[in-house]
Amino acid sequence: MTYPSDVPDCERVNAVGRLDGHVFEQLLDSHEAASLLRIHVKTLQRMARRREIPSFVIGGKWRFRASDLEVWVHSRVHSACHPCRLDSEESDGT
User: Fold this and answer.
1) Residue 20 contacts residue 12 (beta carbons within 8 Å)
2) What does the CA dihedral 2, 5, 8, 12 come to, rounded to 10 degrees?
3) Under 8 Å CB-to-CB from 43, ≥6 apart: which residues?
4) What value does the CA radius of gyration of the chain take, rounded to a whole number of Å?
5) Mutual orientation of helices 66-77 and 30-37 as an angle, nearest 10°?
6) Residue 92 predicted with pLDDT over 60
């Protein structure tokens, strides 16, 4: 695909969803993201409305990046206040 010289690099998109030199991550809809997280779609949408999970709205529909969800899950699991960590600290006597 060729572009006129006055088209900025950030607008040069090829057929496979790449900006010149950058991969464009495909967005997940609510059903796909809920399936990935193994939670009900309504639970996911409620969390999105409450801004408890990384998300945004495009065209009136919630959208999610799988990479953002992975970081979010990782941060929740490794949090010091995660319930399984609190249980182990209590059992250790600390």
Assistant:
1) yes
2) 0
3) 34
4) 19
5) 30
6) no
CA distance 28 to 33: 6
Query: Can you read off the two tokens belonging to residue 9?
Result: 């690099």
The amino acid sitting at 25 is E
Phi-psi label, residue 75: left if phi above 0, alpha if psi -120 to 50, beta otherwise? alpha
d(CA 39, CA 61): 18
Say if pTM beats, i.e. exceeds, 0.85.
Answer: no
Which residues partner with 27 through β-bridges?
65
Inter-residue contact 25 to 67 (CB < 8 Å) = yes
DSSP 5-74: TTS-GGG-B-TTSEETTEE-PPEE-HHHHHHHHTS-HHHHHHHHHTT-S--EEETTEEEEEHHHHHHHHH
pLDDT digits (tens, 9 = 90+) for 32-69: 999 999 999 999 999 999 999 999 999 999 999 999 99
